[in-house]
Amino acid sequence: MAQFINKRENVVTEAIDGILSASRSKLARLDGFPHIRVIIRNDWDKSKVALVSGGGSGHEPAHAGFVGAGMLTAAVCGDVFASPSVDAVLAGILAVTGPAGCLLIVKNYTGDRLNFGLAAERARGFGLNVNMVIVDDDIALPDLPQARGIAGTLFVHKIAGAMAERGATLEAITVAARRVISSTKSIGMSLDTCTVPGSSKENRIPAGMAELGLGIHGEPGVEQIVYSDARTAMDAVVRKLAAAMDDKPHVALINNLGGTSVLEMSVLVHELVNSSLGKSLSHIVGPAAMMTSLDMRGFSVSVYPAEEADLDALGEAVSLAAWPGLSQVTPIVIMPMPDGLTPIAPLPSQHDQTRKFLFNCCDMLISAEQDLNALDAKSGDGDTGSTLAGAARALIKAIDRLPLADHAQLLRAIGQELSQTMGGSSGVLLAIFFTAAGEGASSGLTLNDALKAGLIRMQEIGGARAGDRTMVDALAPALDALDVSLQSAAKAARAGANLTATFVRANAGRAVYINAKQLEGHIDPGAEAVARLFEHLAI
């Protein structure tokens, strides 16, 4: 897979210099590239306890992103997923440690433990007061004698960092760090493995599966489970965490493992807060990418039963963009709609034939969702099917409050429903179409003429004409032919839709941004939806 790198052997050093260039001169690095890669605070005066952490690169923003006032004093960076050398760690210790001493915060991996441990011994030989804590928060493999250190490390960085900034002693900070470590529990889940720069990707996780408990270096997890949606994924994570937690209020840290979109992470927070664990969560850190695994499409959740002093430390503001801050879990606030926008609901009425007709139309649009999405992906953003199916599901849900026996009011009600539930420009245009058609029917027009009036209004506002490669290319001929028969309308709609595949330029909709080669041979998805609907009704 293509990546934005130059040479594999230079990726870490170039990334570090990139971080420094954007640090507003708050960070510096020790002279020693490429073997000694240590980032330190530019304002450090050695008067307080120094906090040094680090490990392999590839977990950005950890660890360099957390160097600054209120968190780390220095970060020691190894190659991607490889521990830094003893000399590199020792250089970091010597550069920042003064009379107050130094605490090394190390994740529980053999290389990190050995290299940081030996560097600590050598630093003590220089007469420095150095302590080391080892983070082992991963609960994925309960029988493992040495649990891995993952995103729960951030709790230690922030709480210890706040204490150090306030001038606490090395002994007090070490005691607090060990207390945090002993109570922090974490587990991760991913839909895919990560891609190490310059290496081929390991496709270990099959489509339709998710891996639970995998490590931040791409190590295999405890099990692969069937993936269906965000709720079941979070439930699997919650079950593991709940078994390891005690009955106290907890802070949850929601970590993006690198390749999960911001939108997905917000959905995962929603699921966590509404899960069986939600009642135990008082505060949240994130969601954010904090301890990543390159581009892994996954997330992790860390929980810690924070005491009042810990909450103060976690909530203390820092100027580091990588730290997302602490938020209290609060009920969702819902404000009333502004005056004039609260819809006036029509009086519902029943009409079995109309009800059956609407269900028939909606079922067809829902069944065509994937096909229309695939077609839209060739000339748009791939969501036409989902947009129409979502509107169809909303209409089905609302059907018992619609005026089914009054077609003029029904058209208006459908327009109102679509304006609220259907996204994108297509939702607005169809809302205009049905609302105008309802007005036409109320003024005495026949249903066919009312629909034509709706189309005219939609074209006036939307600007699309026949030949512009939109749903109009199928809808206009279908409505003209509807005066003859439904079968004629279906044939006209199909002919109009098929014709759009010959148009190599669109004059409306998102397809206007697509070049001719991508458009040629592909039917416009909106026109295809109209054609399928008429064909379905004509059967």
TrEMBL record:
**EC number(s) for this protein?**
2.7.1.29
Does this entry carry the keyword ATP-binding? yes
Can you say what this protein is called? Dihydroxyacetone kinase
Q: What are the BP-aspect GO terms?
A: glycerol catabolic process
Recorded hits in Pfam families, A to Z, give: Dak1, Dak2
Q: Name one GO cellular component term.
A: cytosol
Recall the GO molecular function terms of this protein's record: ATP binding; glycerone kinase activity
Q: Does the keyword ATP-binding apply?
A: yes
Q: Which organism is it from?
A: Phyllobacterium myrsinacearum
Q: DhaL domain: from which residue to which, for each copy?
A: 352-539
Q: DhaK domain location, by residue?
A: 7-323
Q: Which UniProt keywords apply?
A: ATP-binding, Kinase, Nucleotide-binding, Transferase
SMART domains assigned: Dak2
